[in-house]
From TrEMBL:
Keywords: Heme, Iron, Kinase, Metal-binding, Signal, Transferase. InterPro entries: Cyt_c-like_dom (IPR009056), Cyt_c-like_dom_sf (IPR036909), Cytochrome_c-type_DH (IPR051459). It holds the Pfam family Cytochrom_C. It comes from the Bacteria. The keyword Signal applies. Residues 1-24 form the signal peptide. It comes from Limimaricola cinnabarinus. PROSITE patterns: CYTC. Residues 39-146, 187-293 form the Cytochrome c domain. This is Diacylglycerol kinase. GO terms for molecular function: electron transfer activity; heme binding; kinase activity; metal ion binding. The keyword Membrane does not apply.
Length: 296
């Protein structure tokens, strides 16, 4: 009787382990999504700026400039450990040997060329909402930037967060393609939603997180603790940001607030990237932020 019970328990354990292995498997994009026209580097430069790639992937203390060297190395502290931005320049140490499809899968699905999960420090939960053609354009632009042979630094993560397979469970709970602010929006707010929610991934910093690091979308853009431990990232819903659309757009272009203060810290890098967008795109982001439901 005992042997039979033990055998049944072992079988259930194996079944549960097998089910968990299947459910947490990396899921790349379908082939039909990856197929499409070649990327346009000029359009990709605008996607690159909106997505803020250089702000994370240039070396610490390096300038972004017009042709940034995406050598990586910048540290990002979190409650789960410290992540280090990788080299994504077009070199053998970066993504120079990757196919376009491999880069798009990494950005939109968090799946490496070897089929492993990337940690969501790469904001693929936001990029999952992007248009695949925009991602192909982004890849075309990346391939025109200067190469760097800087080696990647491994993340400093304690157990169990060092087990990448567990990221598959996080994806099951948090990877969505629907808009957070759903429904029809008037132009230019609809364009602003695409930039803010998909490309610029504003929610990654400005939205509080649950215990496993997923965004609390019920408090979308309502502010969050700074992962570095210094201060708090502000509430940018209408309940916390009473600037006009013109004020917001001007801030995204110049970094100057209506109170004659200036953007600092990581936001200064974001503004440097946003300033490369068209005035219409910055106005669209401002219109979107004014349409976000207020959260006290």
């Amino acid at each position: 009787m005992i042997r039979r019970a033990l055998g049944a328990a072992a079988a259930l354990a194996l079944l549960a382990a097998g089910t968990g292995w299947v459910l947490t498997a990396p899921e790349p994009l379908p082939e039909e999504v990856l197929a499409g026209p070649p990327g346009d580097a000029a359009r990709g430069a605008r996607v690159f700026a909106a997505a803020g790639c250089a702000a994370c992937h240039v070396a610490p203390e390096a300038d972004i400039g017009d042709a940034p060297v995406l050598s990586g190395g910048r540290a990002f502290a979190s409650p789960f450990g410290t992540f280090y931005a990788p080299n994504i320049s077009p070199s053998t140490q970066g993504v120079g040997d990757w196919s376009d499809a491999e880069i798009v899968n990494a950005v939109m699905r968090g799946v490496s060329p070897s089929g492993a999960h990337y940690y969501p420090a790469l904001p693929y939960a936001a990029y999952a909402r992007a248009e695949p053609q925009d991602m192909r354009d982004l890849v075309a632009h990346l391939r025109e930037l200067p190469p760097s042979e800087a080696e990647n630094r491994p993340h400093d993560l304690p157990f169990p967060f060092s087990i990448r397979r567990g990221v598959g469970l996080w994806k099951l709970m948090n990877l969505r393609e629907e808009w957070v602010v759903d429904g029809d929006l008037p132009e230019p707010a609809e364009r602003g939603r695409y930039i803010a929610e998909a490309l610029a991934h504003c929610g990654e910093c400005h939205t509080p997180r649950g215990p496993l690091g997923g965004l609390d979308q019920a408090r979308w853009l309502s502010g969050a603790p700074n992962p570095s431990g210094e201060g708090r990232i502000p509430n940018i819903t209408p309940a916390g940001l009473d600037w006009s659309e013109e004020d917001i757009a001007y801030y995204l272009e110049t970094g100057f607030t209506p109170d004659f203060d200036t953007a600092g810290g990581e936001m200064a890098l974001v503004v440097e990237e946003m300033a490369r967008l068209s005035s219409e795109d910055r106005a669209a982001v401002a219109a979107y932020l004014k349409s976000v439901p207020p959260v006290e």
